[in-house]
Amino acid sequence: MDRRKPELLCPAGDMEKLRMAVAYGADAVYLAGTSFGMRSFTANFTPDELPQAIKLAHDAGVKVHCTVNIMPRNDEAAALPAYLEQLDAAGVDALILADLGAFRMAGKYAPHCQRHVSTQQSVANYACAQSWFDLGASRVVLARELSLQEIIDIRERVSPELELETFCHGAMCVSYSGRCLLSSYLTGRDGNRGACAQACRWEYSLIEKNRSDEGFDIEEDERGTYVMNSKDLCLIDHIPDLIEAGICSLKIEGRMKSIHYVATVVSVYRKAIDAYWNDPKKYQVTDEWRQELEKVSHRPYTKGFAFGKPGSDGQVYTTSSYEQTHDFVGIVLAYDADAKRAYIEQRNNVKNGEVLELLMPDGELFPLTLEDMRNADGESIDCAPHAQQKFSIVSDRALMPDSLLRRKVIC
After folding, report:
1. How far apart are CA 315 and CA 318, in angstroms?
2. Pairing state of beta strands 355-359 and 365-369?
3. How many CA atoms does the CB half-sphere of 401 hold within 13 Å?
4. What would the mean pLDDT of 267-294 be, rounded to a whole number?
5. 315: DSSP letter
6. In the predicted model, what is the mean pLDDT of residues 324-328?
7. How far is CA 287 from each of CA 15, 272, 284, 291, rounded to the nearest angstrom?
8. CA 154 to each of CA 76, 150, 159, 246, 280: distance values in angstroms, whole numbers, following the listed order
9. Given pLDDT bands bounded at 50, 70 and 90, which one contains residue 219?
10. Which of 10, 79, 152, 331 has its C-alpha lying 20 to 30 A from 226's C-alpha?
């Protein structure tokens, strides 16, 4: 089997998140237009924004994959050709497709786009993967329920030209490959059409047939029960295993997550992939990488199905809450080398003299003291309390645009 350096595929829920994914090391991004995607509550990209997004990515050598992965109804199927032609003309590199009809239409109406088969298709065996390749797919996104050994077996038994993609980090769904009716049944918001209400994260009680007006607590602890609440996937310790298994694209979940999440997680996996590829014998996962992944908002981590069924390792039985060790408090907009001043946009209240942590797009991490804070008019200020307030600080060190400022959470 020919080894290839895997693509790092990163989420881009809007233009700002796209910019951060590109700045922090994505090889490719996945995003959606305003139609036919599985994340209807993220900002997504309008027809006017999409060409701008593609240009931003392509100028940096980053590919763009567009999701067209709902299961369309008749009226939507009729509208698909025009939409696919629009994506093709805009310069999208690949389409992520879940419906066979949409897949066949994409071959006709978006001939310049590669066709990738979505994880919604639950590709879990070599016969299915090969069948999609025979139909014209250049890549399949494997079912999230596969073990590492099953991935290896698929790689060995399908055409070598077929690319295999898998998730390596992010939120997991309790249902099979994300195909769930719970949200639709309880709220009318269909998870298979991009409107999931995440009903699996709710607290539930028990109703007895003859006492329908009375709910009984189901308590795993004093806060309730969380029998369907999945942990977040984290395979940072297994990058070598995934590369050697023949995965060509490592995918980070998170189009609805913050720019802090996107930048931090992309930065860590960029370092890990590069370190292993450049010198496998010296490769080791660093404590810094693990600590970085704890700094973003997340549920407790799991290895998912990589080494067998997760059981209790894959569920959170104590809470539905997120955890993180650091708060995102600001982003660097620009640096003036002559004045030795960095210009910052506030994302949380910060004060003059405060010592923060700064992560730059090149992966460098170091402490930064806010000194000589000045507002947009150049006046000295003691703090920046207003949402997205712009201010500047003195810094002898050049700070890269899109660098992130963080504050350690005091428990």
Report:
1. 9
2. antiparallel
3. 9
4. 97
5. B
6. 96
7. 31, 12, 10, 6
8. 33, 6, 10, 9, 24
9. low
10. 10
Mean pLDDT of 52-76: 94
DSSP string, 376-407: TTS-B-SEE-STT-EEEEE-SS---TT-EEEE
- Rounded distance between C-alpha atoms, residue 1 and residue 4, angstroms: 9
In the β-sheet with 341-346, what is the strand arrangement from edge to edge?
Answer: 365-369, 355-359, 404-408, 326-336, 341-346, 390-394, 374-375
CA distance 382 to 367: 19
Residues 6+ apart with CB under 8 A from 1: 155, 156, 160, 246
List, in sequence order, every beta strand (DSSP E) within 34-162: 63-68, 94-97, 114-117, 139-141
DSSP 234-246: E-GGGHHHHHHTT
CB 317 within 8 A of CB 220: yes
User: In this structure, are residues 230 and 174 in contact, taking their beta carbons and an 8 Å threshold?
Assistant: yes
* DSSP helix/strand/coil, 158: coil
How far is it, in rounded angstroms, from Cα 4 to Cα 325? 35
Residue written as token pair 């308590």: 219
The residues, ordered by sequence, that sit 6+ positions from 181 with a Cβ below 8 Å of its Cβ are: 191, 192
pTM value is 0.88
Query: Would the pLDDT of 384 be above 60?
Result: yes
In this prediction, residue 70 has a pLDDT band, given cuts at 50, 70 and 90, of confident
Q: Which two tokens stand for residue 352?
A: 């003059």
CA atoms lying within 13 Å on the CB side of residue 177: 16
Tokens of 81: 């050709």
Name the amino acid, one letter, at 99: D
Q: What is the mean pLDDT of the chain?
A: 90
Query: Which of 134, 137, 174 is closest to 248 using CA atoms?
Result: 137
